[in-house]
């Protein structure tokens, strides 16, 4: 579609504010066509042996790896992340697909056996049918495969809608995958929230998986309840980072700057809420600000750039609003706190201190290059501060004390807790949040289970005329 055509949805490069593509927003009728196409393919695909589904997924992974540089360049241009970071993401993309291919062939069900009434019982893993996938703008390619790979591996047909801001790598991914998949198994619709609502409301969509913010997740869950479809929600985060005095200040600060400002802080697991033990506070804050000053903000295509723009003008204004309101209630902005005077939606890496636990900038997700640093008297107070938010996605503990690590990984109320690191995931381990960060798991065998339904089959081999009550009956 031409960029200047009336009604076109325009995709913009956030580092230049210039249009790079345009597309037509899918209507409710377009969504229905995609769902009907998926439904027609679902039965055959669901009966395809797991080994054949796995072989196709492995070919898709190989093709992505062969074209990794083009994917990285496209992701960098559309999202605004440094091209070096986009390249670093690529191995995670094909690793998830290859893991899902293998997981499809492994049964996690209990062994068949005679559990009651002289009958033999076993479980069947079956696909749901048609699943709708709605992916975010911050990691469009990676979050796309986190959902597509297990959904297809489990035998479902898919309708996917990427964010209207960053559809480019998803378009390329679907085009590539459909070279190997049977027709109708993977379907793409481009659009905005109205398109997403049509997917969620469609009666033939048996599950919806969303990565997005909390308000969107609540709206999806409410709409999905009308048809009682399954919902998996990976929502926002406000990760507490507990830094203790025994953690080396300079190295910890260096690592946390990387984890706090990666992707311009537009990451639901970003190290954005640092809580430092009082004895180490001054030294850590000084070291942290020194490391922030070393960030190189600029053109994402420059290999020397370490931080790019935020995704849109709207996001820039949102981030700036949080910081200005924090200033208004007495917080100190030690570094940054302003839009950079250049083309593109660039906001300076920002460090905020002297904030109350109840303040907006602590309690709500900023989703930008803004990090708060608080001080805590001791382990107990730091833990209480960490858990005192509505989110429950991720947290980390920075210490050399093994006992403390064990206590805090138990007591932190978050779906993922790291020790002396942040952000990294493993395809073999589940990822998902607690509380307002949603429900459902991605990655691992649990991720495959999200896209499956399990049927108990109970067989009594012989019919008898015995009127005795059956064992195990209610």
Helicity range: 25-40%
Number of helical regions? 15
* Biggest β-sheet: strands ordered side by side in the sheet: 12-13-14-11-10-16-17
- Compute the CA-based radius of gyration: 24 Å
Main beta-sheet strand count, sense and barrel state: 7 strands, mixed
Oligomer: single chain
Q: What coarse outline follows from CA principal-axis ratios?
A: globular
User: How much strand content do the residues show?
Assistant: 15-25%
The CATH class assignment of the largest domain is Alpha Beta
Q: What CATH architecture of the largest domain do you see?
A: 3-Layer(aba) Sandwich
Mean pLDDT: 95
Query: How many discrete domains?
Result: 2
Characterization of this structure:
The chain is an alpha/beta fold and 474 residues long. It is 39% helix and 20% strand. It is built from 15 helices and 20 strands. It has helices at residues 28-46, 50-66, 68-79, 83-103, 140-153, 168-177, 193-201, 214-224, 249-261, 281-292, 313-328, 360-363, 379-387, 402-411, 444-450; strands at 9-13, 18-23, 113-116, 119-127, 130-134, 157-161, 186-188, 205-211, 230-234, 240-243, 273-277, 332-335, 350-353, 370-376, 391-392, 394-398, 416-419, 434-435, 438-439, 452-459. A 7-stranded mixed β-sheet has the order 12-13-14-11-10-16-17, sandwiched between helices. A 6-stranded mixed β-sheet has the order 7-6-5-8-9-19, sandwiched between helices. The longest helix is centred in the first third of the chain and has 21 residues, at 83-103. 49% of the residues are buried.
